[in-house]
Amino acid sequence: MRRRIIVYIATSADGFIARPDGDVGWLDRPPVPGSYGMAAFLRSIDTILWGRKTYEQGLDLGGSPEGFGKGIRNHVFTRRPAPPAAKGVEFVNEPVRTFARRLRRRKGKDIWMMGGGEIIASFLDEGQVDEFVIHVIPTLIGEGIPLVAPRHRNIPLELRSTKRYRDGVVRLHYEVGKRRRSSGAQPISNFE
Q: Taking the alpha carbons of 118, 119, 123, 126 in that order, is the dihedral positive or negative?
């Protein structure tokens, strides 16, 4: 079975994953039973993909790569020289498609695309995102970092399921559809 790359994330009701400065304080909510399915999701993965800014933000908030469980591999994408890596962390500076194909060939569980918006966009544009599980938080923040960095794209999503939580959070589970090329459209060179 092919390992899936899944964007499992929360957004504000207006589609942002963080404020412009990276702040995610608006995500703080009273706990709900089952933590929106996070424990079950963590059991289904063994690898996390991070953009460097998201990774550094997590460290600044007191997190650590081991925070999601022992044995989870962390790959941090960076364009800058990589600092020394903590145990379980590998810094990556190679083409997304090459890396994703190599990663999928390894035996293992599914792969969590943690974010942020730039790395999600890069994987999506290379056809390397399989699913989105988006927890829409009933809060408008007005401006911020979008779920997917803006670029011209038309990628259909197929709704797999929805779930409403008692605190107003809604989980949307989408499968990424195949791009259809219209008869006059130019092919997209970085997507198969």
A: positive
